[in-house]
Design goal:
This protein is α/β, with parallel strands linked by helices. It is built from 10 helices and 14 strands. Strands 5-4-3-2-1-12-13-14 form an 8-stranded mixed β-sheet, sandwiched between helices. Helix 1 packs parallel to helix 10. The N and C termini lie close together (5 Å).
Length: 273
């Protein structure tokens, strides 16, 4: 058995297959890792609400790094161990920059998600319809998201913005790139915004300090640009076969894609081998 003690799995495009499910083979591999004494955690851009439908499957996973590092959650004790709020003045500037643009806002505060009813009803317009049931069934829907953001501006941890096309997302990213924030994306049409210095890597550092696990004894598995920072600090970076090219360029190891049990391969070859 090798020296790696912890493995951190991204969700979408990694732990979840194309149908947004965790395969039975992956569930069994996670259970084998846990029974062998290894620590298995989530490392996701999702908020806590977005994990509701997986809670039974994830019940034995002790910790979640959520919101791309803005929230660290103790799953066993139902407790937020750490959260980081964005600066209100920066959020105000983002609202000003994006005024009158055809966008869908989804923000997370205190681990909980909020979006606009009308936008969620038409997520196909933003090519994000695969997430529509998730948002409709799990987050709080409001009539005017911009006004709701202004009313809760002091407690926002993460903002997701969905654009009509990938090209519009690139333009949006450039328009806010001067701000002191972290910008990543896990989908071509989605821009994820957290406070400066907040990433899955910062979440892993906080958790490893709590657990007294050296970073060099950790593995990070992912597929998107919001996984790059955690891959840089983990002892071993594993990219999925379906990873974005930016991930393939920096990861140390590639496994099969998320529809062919790449996470099983990560566990069996590199965690419990």
């Amino acid at each position: 058995m090798n020296d790696y003690q912890l493995i951190a799995f991204d969700m979408d495009g990694t732990l979840l297959d194309g149908k947004k499910q965790i395969t039975i083979k992956t569930q069994h591999a996670i259970n084998r890792a846990l029974k062998s004494g290894k620590t298995v955690i989530l490392s996701t851009g999702r908020g806590l609400d977005e994990l509701n439908e997986y809670r039974d499957i994830l019940k034995d996973i002790p910790y979640f790094i959520c919101e791309s590092g803005a929230c660290v959650y103790d799953n066993f004790n139902d407790e937020i161990l750490y959260s980081n709020q964005m600066d209100a003045s920066i959020i105000e500037e983002i609202l000003t920059i994006t005024e009158h643009q055809d966008l869908m806002f989804y923000y997370i505060a205190n681990g909980r998600g909020y979006s606009e009813i009308e936008k969620v009803d038409h997520m196909d317009h933003y090519q994000m319809e695969i997430y529509q049931p998730l948002l409709k069934n799990n987050i709080r829907l409001v009539s005017n998201i911009r006004e709701h953001i202004k009313q809760h501006i002091a407690c926002i941890e993460k903002i997701n913005i969905f654009t009509v096309t990938p090209e519009e997302r690139i333009k949006l990213q450039k328009s806010v790139s001067h701000l002191p924030v972290m910008l990543t994306n896990s989908e071509p049409n989605a821009l994820e915004i957290t406070a400066d210095g907040i990433s899955k890597a910062s979440g892993l550092k906080i958790l490893c300090k709590k657990l007294n696990i050296p970073l060099e004894q950790t593995i990070a598995v992912g597929d998107s640009t919001n996984d790059i920072e955690i891959m840089k600090v983990a002892g071993l970076s594993i990219g999925m076969g379906n990873s974005m090219q930016e991930v393939k360029d920096i990861c140390k190891v590639l496994v099969s894609d998320n529809n062919h049990n790449g996470c099983v391969e990560a566990i069996e070859k590199y965690l419990i081998a």
